[in-house]
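Supplementary Methods, section 5.1.

A reviewer requested that the exact input to the structure prediction be made available. We therefore reproduce it here, unchanged from the version used in the analyses.
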Amino acid sequence: MQNFLKSSLRKLGVIVTLAASLSSIATFPAFADYPEKVVRIIVPFSPGGGTDLIARTLGADMSKELGQTVIVENKPGAGTIIGTDAVAKSAPDGYTLLMATFAHAVNPSLQPKLPYATDKAFAPIILIGRSPNVLVVKPESPYKTVQDVIAAAKAKPGRLTFASQGNGTSAHLAGEIFKNLAKVDLTHIPYKGAGPALTDLLGGQVDMMFGTAAAVTPYIQSGRLRALGATTAQRSPAFSSVPTIAESGVAGYAAESWYGLYAPAGTPPEVIAKLNAIAKKAIMTETFRKRAQDEGLIIGAGVPAELDTYVRGEEARWKKIVKENNIAAN
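The structure derived from this sequence is encoded token-by-token as follows.
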């Protein structure tokens, strides 16, 4: 009987070991062969804005390195929440990614009932870079300086309008802080992306925009928009002739945009590591670096933890500012 038990246990051990081996063999190729199909980058804005341009430039170079097509899919709406939620609810397999921006860190403070937990629903891949926003107006606008805008806003409270690519975005919050620190009343007009916002700005439907550098640089360079002030604490190398809003008389003013790539939480570490390495190569290409240089983008391109640390810091900072300045999403 004792020998029978020993024999049975040995057979059971062999079966367990074989099952574990087969499981390992079945699982490993899924990681090793990634990607085996199209990879999507979800942009939570309409086409044509700065985030869309950055995502498409990055995706084109990532596609070459991955050996698979990388497509950009625009899912605008609700201050980036619609597109972000789509990624949060996607399979954690590395085939659906999120191009996150400033709004990703601010929405938890502005929106009390998000359909996802920002700090738990996503796995960081890479901090692509940081850049200024730029206060812009049409060339024929009567406002030629930041002080012109302040004077007009004080003379006509609530009459001047500023566009943004959506509630909770950098263009929105940059305008809200401006209102509070300059002690003026401006009316915020949100859009589903920088593209539609710029269309209305160029068409004269709105007075100004604190646009991302990526979105407004081509229009500044072509003379279709005039830059009045940069939102960062120091002047941007890409806009060296443009004064900061702080040095234009709004003491303490500072804000910046950023771009980061995320996957759904639970994506295998091996896939995250591969995406980080591929994205880093794409960011260092001549095509991407040229776009980054033109738009004042300070490249990050570090490890996933860099994005996580930076965004947690931004979330804490903006939570304090939103509360202290009574900034609302609408």
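The radius of gyration is 24 Å. These observations are discussed further in the main text.
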